[in-house]
Design brief:
Elements (H helix, E strand, L loop, with lengths): L1 E6 L4 E8 L3 E9 L1 H5 L6 H22 L9 E7 L3 H18 L3 E5 H7 L12 E6 L4 E8 L2 E7 L5 H12 L5 H9 L22 H14 L8 H26 L4 E5 L6 H14 L2 E3 L3 H4 L4 H12 L19
Parallel strand pairs: 1-4, 4-5, 6-9, 9-10
Antiparallel strand pairs: 1-2, 2-3, 6-7, 7-8
Helix pairs in contact: 2-3, 4-11, 5-6, 5-7, 6-8, 8-9
The chain binds 5'-O-[(R)-(carboxyoxy)(hydroxy)phosphoryl]adenosine (KG4) and zinc ion (ZN).
Amino acid sequence: MVILGIESSCDETAAAVVKEGRVLMSSVIASQVDVHARYGGIVPEIASRKHIEAVGPVILQALEDARVTLDDIEGVAVTRGPGLIGSLLVGLSAAKALAFARRLPLAGVNHLEGHVAAIFLTEKPPEFPFIALVVSGGHTTIYRVEGFHKFMLLAQTRDDAAGEAFDKAANLLEIGYPGGVVIDRLARTGNPKAISFPRGMRDSLDFSFSGLKTSLLTLLRKRGAPFTEAELPDLCASYQEAIVEVLVEKTLRAAAENDIQRVVVCGGVAANSRLRARFGEDAGRCGVQVFIPPPVLCTDNAAMIAVVGGQLLQEGYREGLDLNAVSRWPLFG
Ligand code: KG4
Ligand code: ZN
């Protein structure tokens, strides 16, 4: 099946064409980063308005890049949640309009399952079951994945998501937005052992990042002055290491406890260069195979939505035109 995917859950308007759930024919992502950067975070009302402007052109571009027309599309997949309601509704309305006008089957996709499914667009995807770490701006979760839509929750964050820990730190340091990208870049020339930051909840598989954020705030207050440009690389590398280390350690522990040797790492934070490197180093030592999509498929995109949508349609699921967006939608249970 040739599926058109549409994603608008946060601040990226995206459309993609995917064939047979494996072949990426096109993926277009219109980012709103520049618009939200001046506020240091996403302004939901602005995000919805920008989605409205972008959704039409982005869909047309995805069709053009894939060298297909709407006549070739056999199904429409759209992110239904979780996410910002106003943003989700834009993609959902566009998808419904297309499905109605072209008499195409419609699938409503869970954004988090989409992040995991991005791995099926890579050359050698893992077989089920596998352990999945989903690390994004809003989620930090470990699942045992038995199949499509078969997720067992193993661990989650008790407070901030890993992406939030990056973004809030960058905000405190006033070094730009989105924080993960900026800290990743600055950390490259820094020493990860320069400053000792706390590692939260060592004894549990669950995560906690609020203590880390607070310790950065305390450090800043004690200094009473901003860090200089020369100091930032060490600070960023040390802060990043505190996040990366617990993510890697707990995911590999979950794999060992579940006797599963395949681990998928996905979501925006999976684009982090240190996280990718650390997983590579540490997993090899434990005999675990790690699968991470290329960075462009880690951050929000519509190709991952098309993969899950295609699967749902194959399984016979069909959404009606009364399909609504949901801001919260846990993957399990
Ligand atoms: O998956 P995503 O694009 O959107 C959500 O579903 O939330 O994730 C966005 C998050 C942001 O917090 C951003 O700072 C983080 O992913 N991120 C990164 C990197 N690129 C994006 N964090 C660390 N290193 C990166 N290179
Ligand atoms: Zn996401």
